[in-house]
Amino acid sequence: MDIAEIDKLPVAERFSKRVILKVSRIEKVEQHPGGSFLYILTLNTGDEERQIVSSIVEFYKPEELLGKNIVLVYNLKPANFRGVRSNGMLLAASDPQIKDKETCEVIFAPQFEPGTILEPEGFEPPQEQLCYVKPDKFFEMQLYTKDGFVELDGKKICAEGKYLTVETYKNGLVG
Known about the structure:
The protein is mostly beta strands. It is built from 4 helices and 15 strands. It is globular. The two termini are about 25 Å apart. The protein has helices at about 5, 10-20, 60-65, 135-140; strands spanning about 20-30, 40-45, 50-55, 70-75, 80, 85, 90, 90-95, 105, 115-120, 145, 150, 155-160, 160-165, 170-175. The longest helix is centred in the first third of the chain and has 8 residues, at about 10-20.
């Protein structure tokens, strides 16, 4: 099945064929030398070490992140942020009701081991290596929180019979 055919599928099925969400542990947190609002995070993805850049300095101290399991958009197309390469993006929830300032809740995943692949309920992780997904294509398949669960197209995100949840922004957007 080619990309054009995949893009015609229902959202949850398209997501399962295009996006890899992988639980990863934050091993190191560094302030980005060229951006006061950016962290450089070194992650253990279960099978490799990976680096991402994230604009969460305003919301989290390094010690609040270190050693925590997060959800990584594993196959997001790499990008450079002020000269530092980011190989993926962490998921965070926000409150759509607050319009005058940005909100951010990193979606922690302590119930899963690093390397766990998360999928919409009813779908299995892909068997083959998926190509990169561009950010605009990823955001077309909008994840959100509903009653504390992370969902996509009415299907909860899960693995091994456990669901991905949030603590603060129980009904909002995920990006």
